[in-house]
Amino acid sequence: DSGVTQTPKHLITATGQRVTLRCSPRSGDLSVYWYQQSLDQGLQFLIQYYNGEERAKGNILERFSAQQFPDLHSELNLSSLELGDSALYFCASSGGTSVTNEQFFGPGTRLTVL
Amino acid sequence: GQNIDQPTEMTATEGAIVQINCTYQTSGFNGLFWYQQHAGEAPTFLSYNVLDGLEEKGRFSSFLSRSKGYSYLLLKELQMKDSASYLCAVIRGATNKLIFGTGTLLAVQP
Question: Is there a contact between A74 and A34 (Cβ–Cβ < 8 Å)?
Answer without folding.
Answer: yes
